[in-house]
Amino acid sequence: MLSTERTRRADHGTLGHGERVMCALTTAVRTALPEADVVVAKGGITSAEVARAGLGAYAALVLGQVLPGISVWRLTAFDGRELLYVVVPGNVGEADTLVEVLRAFGGGSGVAPI
Fold first, then answer.
1. Residue 12 has what DSSP assignment?
2. How far apart, in whole angstroms, are the C-alpha atoms of residue 3 and residue 25?
3. Of 87, 43, 40, 39, whose CA–CA distance to 62 is shortest?
4. For 71-107, how does the pLDDT look when each residue is reduced to its tens digit (9 = 90+)?
5. Quick check: 6 and 51 in contact, CB under 8 A?
6. Which domains does the chain have, with CATH numbers?
7. Sheet containing strand 38-42, strands side by side
8. Sequential DSSP letters for 48-110
9. Does residue 114 contact residue 24 with C-beta atoms inside 8 Å?
10. Is 114 helix (H, G, I), strand (E, B) or coil?
């Protein structure tokens, strides 16, 4: 599991800092991709960038919802593999929502929450 802090330090408040964090996140996703069958991303902009820059996807098919407001996509990653991509909007869910999403997919090996 890869996550970032929920609150930003005062000295990390610039767009440049945010860009570096996003670059590190998408690089980590690209590196972890061979181990994953399902990728779960939280937040709208984060989800879009993880799909585009991290996974190299240029198109996706929305399959439906795993939970209310939480979409499941099928996309093709840069390595040519199709995988499931779960988008959890930033304003959707409770403290245990990501755990519920992972349980819906078996929560075992091959699931890489990003």
1. G
2. 8
3. 87
4. 999 999 998 999 999 999 988 888 888 888 988 887 6
5. no
6. 10-113 (3.40.980.20)
7. 60-67, 70-76, 82-88, 38-42, 111-113
8. HHIIIIIS--S-EEEEEEEETTEEEEEEE-TTS-EEEEEEE-TTS--TTHHHHHHHHTTSSTT
9. no
10. coil
Residue type, 9: R
Q: What is the pLDDT of residues 43-57, one digit of tens each?
A: 889 999 999 999 999
Tokens of 1: 């599991």
Cβ neighbors of 99 (< 8 A, separation 6 or more) are 107
pTM (two decimals)? 0.82
Q: Which residue has the tokens 């390595």?
A: 79
